[in-house]
Amino acid sequence: MSDQNDPLAVSLFSEIFMVDQLARARLTRALPKGMEISHFSVLNHLAHANDEKSPAQLARAFSLTRGAMTNTLHKLENAGHIHIRPDWDDARRKFVAISPAGRNARDAAIAAITPVIGQVVDAIGVEKARAALPVLRELRIRLASDS
Question: Could you tell me the maximum CA-CA distance found in the chain, to the nearest angstrom?
């Protein structure tokens, strides 16, 4: 990257960081009581997965340490939102699946945040939001491949 592009890169990532911070704050206020963004993210991921996931797979998917993911999983398990079972072939491993209560909690969270994020998309315009998606998606893919 040449020096003339450095201000562009800094501005781009500064905006992304601020959007992330503001979006997290707004969504945290909208989520059902007791639910954190990390809880919602894991429930949403498991709701879309058609199979159980290991804690290590979940940690990789969210770019977290195993310890951080284990903490989130314990909170979700204590709330009854997930089931954690041992691997029947290797007792050292575990598998995680969303529970019916977890699906209900995820659905309640979606219902709570949809109006909030919908208002933002309406305010900037559907076409602008649609146009931003390919750039954001490419950034995510490139950042994920550099890990």
Answer: 57
Q: How many residues make up the chain in this entry?
A: 147
Which residues lie across from 86 on neighbouring strands?
Answer: 94
Instruction: Give DSSP secondary structure letters for 75-99.
Output: HHHHTTSEEEEE-SS-TT-EEEEE-
Residue 91 CA, distance from chain mean position: 28
pLDDT digits 0-9 by tens, 51-74:
999 999 999 999 999 999 999 999
Amino acid code (one letter) for 67: G
DSSP state of 146: T
**Closest C-alpha among 10, 16, 25 to residue 132:** 16
Q: Which pTM value belongs to this model? A: 0.85
φ/ψ (deg, to 5) at 51: -150, 165
Using the predicted structure, report yes or no on whether residue 5 has a pLDDT greater than 80.
Answer: no
Strand, coil or helix: 121: helix
**Domain locations along the chain:** 3-145
Does 3-145 carry CATH code 3.40.50.2300? Answer: no
CB atoms under 10 Å from CB of 145, counted, come to: 7
